Amino acid sequence: MIKVGDKLPAGTLMEYSEVEGNGCSIGPNPVDVHKATDGKTIAIFALPGAFTPTCSAKHVPGFVQHASDFKAAGVDEIWCISVNDAFVMGAWAREQKSAGIVRMLGDGSAEYTKATGLTLDLSGRGMGLRSNRYSMLVKDGVVRTLNIEAPGKFEVSDAGTLLAQAKAL
Fold it and tell me: Which residues form the catalytic set?
């Protein structure tokens, strides 16, 4: 499992973007994790699935609400990673009004999530292999803080916790 001080694993996530105004899409587009984090400070949070209750009501809205605070603390980008395809993540971004605020990145086959070692098996609930709920602060591709939730919890991966850590670095 990934830990503080580790470099993020190599991998590709997928991002769906829309052209504002005409409804034509751009994407899905591959995002090379190493290239996208090079020279940047990124606030990353991951969750079990788009449109799920806690993720939609608390997790994403907290990061959207505090986006300007993250920027003020030196964070270049905020990423949300979920084991969903890029089209679902794009639809969720529209619903959450997160476009231009939080990059909604899909890990449709859970390959990147497996590489981090932060998987959560929700097969018993009909959801298959998903991502554990966590947040991390990454600087130049290296994990500086990592907050992993216990199953079914939402106590340490929230925007407020990660923002306090970003301000402390």
Answer: 55
